[in-house]
Amino acid sequence: MNAIRNSTQLGSVRRRPVSLQPGSMVEYASLPGVDNSPLIIEARAEGLRLSAWAAGRREELEELAARHGAVLLRGFAVEGVSDFAECVDKMCGGALEYRFRASPRSEVGHHIYTSTDYPADQFIFPHNEHSFSPVCPRYLVLWCETAARTGGETPIGDNREITRRINAAVKERFLRRGILYVRNYGVGFGLPWPTVFQTHDRAEVERYCDSVSIECQWRKNDQLRTRQVGPAMIRHPRTGEHIWFNHATFFHVTTLPTEFSKALLAEFEEADLPTQTYYGDGTSIEPEALEHLRGIYRASLCSFSWQANDVVLVDNILAVHGRNPYSGFRRVCLAMAQTFKPNEWAVLCGETP
């Protein structure tokens, strides 16, 4: 499942010709062979703290993220989790609590989490973070505290290119029908509902679901099923572009490694799978459409090797991300910032940009 393009070390990064003022503290670069994403901003002054440099640059950094999809900030000093949290505050307005969870994560600071606590030998398929949810983060900020001995890259894909490459008939079907997300909690695989909703109070779960139009059904043995419909594409709140933004592929059982998907389908009825996706009217998504989408996601990826104290600002609408397998200890921390509701920015079938 792993298809990575242009994996590079900083030494092979191509410097862009830019106009630098005398005494400028940073320079700009890009990955060789990658037209747009990500932009690299490298500190030229030794010991320059990112939290200090980013102060007053929020608008500039958000504009660069909108232009390039992601910005890699390299060579800056980040002095621990609390300093990283300050960086997030300066760059995009503070970290969000991880709500309506889908991935196992450990909280290492106030609203600062490990990226995903999946086994090191697994490849995480590219996705827009939380794009299944009625409330999503606009930005992700990742900080490499400790790079893996080998592997462990966070490949990034250009979602503009993904959107352009999707077959028009496939796109039209999703736009017309939307996407139904079905999740089952407490089935022995995936996260239990108290972890997902961060409460043991069923009434509180019901209130949250009702507030964001999620249908919830309590089942025997303290199990819960949720269903909600979301859009296939949204308008970017800043640029107005129509962008493919959903979890139709990521949450579908056939996107898992073959041995995992076969094991799940042998154990569960389809309606009882931990996660599964359908067209919004409840009909099955064609296998060929899913494979078409998976191929486009994989082909979009570019990769760089993490270095200690690298920070990446990701426009969560314009860039997808994944994770490569790795060896050795690795800790990459994640913060999410600024919420929006995809249904408020949904692209309708036949709508033009």
TrEMBL record:
Protein name in the entry: Taurine catabolism dioxygenase TauD
Domain TauD/TfdA-like: 44-331
InterPro entries, per database record: AlphaKG_dependent_hydroxylases, TauD-like_sf, TauD/TfdA-like
Keywords: Antibiotic biosynthesis, Dioxygenase, Oxidoreductase, Plasmid
Listed PANTHER family: GAMMA-BUTYROBETAINE HYDROXYLASE-RELATED, TAUD_TFDA-LIKE DOMAIN-CONTAINING PROTEIN
Cofactor section: Fe(2+)
Originating species: Methylocystis bryophila
Example of a GO MF term: 2-oxoglutarate-dependent dioxygenase activity
Membrane-spanning residues: none
Pfam families reported for this sequence: TauD
GO biological process, one term: antibiotic biosynthetic process
